[in-house]
Design a protein that fits this description.
By secondary structure, the protein is an alpha+beta fold. The protein has one domain: Gcn5-related N-acetyltransferase (GNAT) (Aminopeptidase). It is built from 7 helices and 7 strands, in the order αβαααβββαβαββα.
């Protein structure tokens, strides 16, 4: 859909003030776009089997993204290119670590350096004294993702054989410095939360 509303062009000084790349937590208004792009990137990926794609699409509802944001608004991070949302990073707390669920650039922005900016921004925010490490799973065949993660300080600690719906996954980790006392208990919705998620799924939320 095209927005045809006409507005006056901003003054040149104001236009120059918009940074080339930036990040911010997703707002409620962003979630429809982020969720739609997430469903699309899951569908188009050549690295996952049909069972995994169906599972991820059923799990990562807009309700689930809002639940992550209640833990920390930055768990759904928008990557901006000249003020426009061009990518996202979705993460969650995992018992003293932060797990990067999905990180991707929207198709129109893939020939920019937005992804590199997002990698730095993620570490700047989450290497905040609360976590021992960041980690993620990557399919061994996804050589581009593995190379990028290694470039930004992630190390392959092991390969989990036939781990998720019969497929292998590399565990990629980057050490952080935890200084706070105590641990989060991961993302748990409880029975009421699961009921709300089920209802939201039926309502398409």
């Amino acid at each position: 859909m095209t927005d045809t509303t006409l507005t006056a062009a901003p003054p040149a000084a104001e236009a120059r003030a918009v940074p080339r790349f930036a990040v911010r937590p997703a707002t409620a208004a962003d979630l429809d776009l982020v969720h739609a792009e997430l469903m699309a990137v899951i569908d188009e990926s050549p690295h996952y089997n049909a069972e995994f794609k169906a599972y991820e699409k059923a799990r990562l509802t807009k309700s689930y993204l809002r639940m992550l944001q209640r833990q920390d608004p930055w768990h759904v991070m928008c990557l901006l290119s000249e003020g426009k949302v061009g990518g996202a990073l979705i993460s969650g707390p995992e018992f003293g670590a932060v797990f990067r669920y999905w990180s991707w650039i929207f198709p129109a922005f893939r020939k920019t350096r937005l992804g590199m900016h997002g990698m730095h921004a993620f570490d700047e925010h989450f290497d905040n004294g609360k976590f021992h490490k960041a980690y993620t799973y990557v399919r061994p065949e996804n050589e581009v993702a593995l190379a990028l993660l290694r470039r930004y300080g992630y190390t392959e600690t092991c390969v989990l054989k036939t781990h998720i719906f019969g497929q292998d996954y590399c565990v990629m980790e980057k050490p952080y410095t935890k200084v706070t006392v105590g641990y989060d208990h991961g993302v748990g919705t409880g029975r009421l939360g699961r009921l709300v998620q089920a209802l939201n799924g039926l309502l398409g939320r």
